[in-house]
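Task: fold both queries, return tokens.
Query 1:
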Amino acid sequence: MPAVVPTIDTPTNVYRGTSNIALPAEVSQEIWAAVIDESVFMRLAQPIELPGTGTTIQTITGEPAADWVSETAAKPVSAHSFGKKAITPYTLAVIELFSI
């Protein structure tokens, strides 16, 4: 990882609480790649290739339900339900107006 060369705008004591530091794109990408590789969520999550128009996946849509019954009563029968869920991509965006 290349060292950050201190400039007049770069603090020399960088720690977790340091903010407003603009890293070169290569350094930033390297850091984010390491974060994603080390993320517990990303290790356990199943990636899905999502085309621009979205996709539909088969998934479990309902869980079995238990009920209280007396010792000698018939036991309820329940099962998972399956269905399709549509996954649609969205973009989070904002335009901020600024003038001097």
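Query 1 returned. Query 2:
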Amino acid sequence: MLAIYIQDAVEGSRPEEIMESTVDANEWKLEVERVTPSLKVHIRTDNKDWRTHVDQMHTHRDGINTALSETKVSYGGIIVTQHIERYQLSEDFELWGC
């Protein structure tokens, strides 16, 4: 059985009376098992720990490298398109004798 102490706020931490629970222990365990997956646990990392910084740096480096490779492909396409446009403009000027 669970016992809960009711404390008098005026007198401090001395228990005044004891209440006994009417909930069955097995029902309580089932309820705890039911709600446990929905509870979130927050573990705070020590920002002064150098290992944490190294892991963060590796994560950021990988993200930057991925973004850079994708950007290089896009940028390369833009450069090729600009060269083609310049070439077409120069051909147009030659056709018109400019």
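Both queries returned. Flag for query 2: Helices lie at 25-35, 50-95.
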